[in-house]
Amino acid sequence: MLKVNIMLRIFAVQIIIICSTDAELVLIGEYPEVNDQIKTYYSDSSRRNYSDSKEFCAKVGSGYTIATVETDTALKVLKENRGKFSGTHWIGLKLGNLPGILVWDEETDTVSQLNVEWKPVENRLSICGAYYSNETQYFRSLLCSLNYQVICEHLRPKPTP
Description:
Elements: H1 2-20, E1 25-33, E2 37-48, H2 50-60, E3 64-66, H3 72-80, E4 87-95, E5 102-104, E6 117-118, E7 128-133, E8 137-142, E9 148-157
């Protein structure tokens, strides 16, 4: 019984944090991540540039960041739940040191194809990455100054049985 109360209290705190930022986050889906953690994706309908989107996700609460889609499992969650969000959403991609190579914002790993189409860079100034979800899904490069929706992610420990 004590474990249940603790989990409920943690959940309630997360709800309060989300409400305090005036966020309108919509749950997209979740999956088990490595190291006994669960990764949950949320979309927000407000439009912001890349920097403001990244900052928004961080302000939602502890453990929230702009989303990364680094595995086939992560991509599958987005594809299977495309009815919950649509359009272009910022994700944690930026232009790397090599021309035309996108890397995850907090790491140096390059982005793999993950069985999803890449739309070509629209011009040489496109330096941030986004995920487009509708009937078709793809990653795309865009000017960081443009305003789009964002996908945030949250990592939390798996509940103990």
